[in-house]
Amino acid sequence: MKMHIRSILSSYLTRKPISKSPIFRSLGQNHFFTNSNSRSNQVITCKAAVCWGAGEAVKVEEIQVEPPKSSEVRVKMLYASICHTDILYCSGFPLPLFPRIPGHEGVGMVESVGENVIALKEGDLVIPTYLGECGECENCRSGKTNLCLEHPLTLNGLMLDGTSRMSIRGQRLYHLFSCSTWAEYMVVNANYLVKIDSRIGLSEASFLSCGFSTGYGAAWKAAKVEKGSSVAVLGLGAVGLGVLEGARNQGAARIIGIDKNERRHEMGKAFGMTDFINPSKSNKPISELVHELTRGEGVDYSFECTGIQSLINEALQTTKVEIRLDDLLTHEIQLEEIKKAYELLKQPDCVKVLIKI
Any signal peptide, and if so, which residues (predicted)? Predict the structure, then answer.
């Protein structure tokens, strides 16, 4: 995840001097540092959006945020954004842990750091990630996965030591994943933060925390889309648009966006989409529509970005992959001839025996 975010940041630096950023004009760097130094070891009372139960509307209330412990960072949030996952967790999925502060997308400034935090300091701009990276375990060093063995995806709503850094009127508050961005302050393990360049547009930076980076990384890092290849993207939400952008930056020649929302047409084109399919305008399966558009060939890469189970098979069928299963058949028998199958398998020219029932 961190790798994906860093790659996107390198492409999207706005080259704006830090002093010209509106957020810095409103905060004032000196004002911020004065406050952080005076409260770095104190509990901070601030506002946050709190969800008290499954399906209940969030309420903005005053909460208390503790100082960071060892390897942790307290962050003053500047912007946060909303992901569908936040809504799911507020409905009690996958565990009804309440009261909780939602939010896992955002951008903020380091207010204070705990012991053993080396890579970050007060005043650094950071983005939280729901997957941490130690940089030293087998998975981190492999360069093939972002599933760190030391800092996994946390679903219990607590810090790595099994406690919370937030409370409301003496009651423990649950985090969302490794953070809770819908608050003025939050505490995060340093390994779940990415330091960003001060030239990036802060109001857009929060979008990199989750969906968009996931899609971008799927095309760039996971699939490694090649230059001149063809791509189909089912669903043009934040993840799907990230795939479009990743495929474009990889040099894909044809990028087909698929969505029932006609408004995604123009949006998709802005992210590199070359063709658009609205499946609601046809009774044909999506895979058939893609094959028609590609003269029966299909695409080199297909990305399913809706989370709808029934579309997974459709995504597979949009590709060019053809498996020659029929050539595996060398012998066919009736069920009554099952003993014969044993003898056939002993023959050197036998690959698969089909039993007709």
Answer: none
Picking from 173, 179, 135, the residue whose alpha carbon sits closest to that of residue 154 is 179
Query: Rounded to whole angstroms, how far apart are CA atoms 192 and 208?
Result: 13
Domain count, the chain: 3
Q: Are 148 and 140 in contact (CB under 8 A)?
A: yes
pTM of the predicted model as reported, rounded to 2 decimal places: 0.80
Same domain, 198 and 242: no
Which tens digits make up the pLDDT trace of 258-277? 999 999 999 999 999 999 99
- Domain co-membership, 193 together with 225: no
pLDDT digits (tens, 9 = 90+) for 42-58: 999 999 999 999 999 99
Q: Provide the strand spans (E) within 19-69.
A: 44-50, 59-65
Whether residue 111 sits in one domain with residue 46: yes
Q: Are 176 and 156 in contact (CB under 8 A)?
A: no
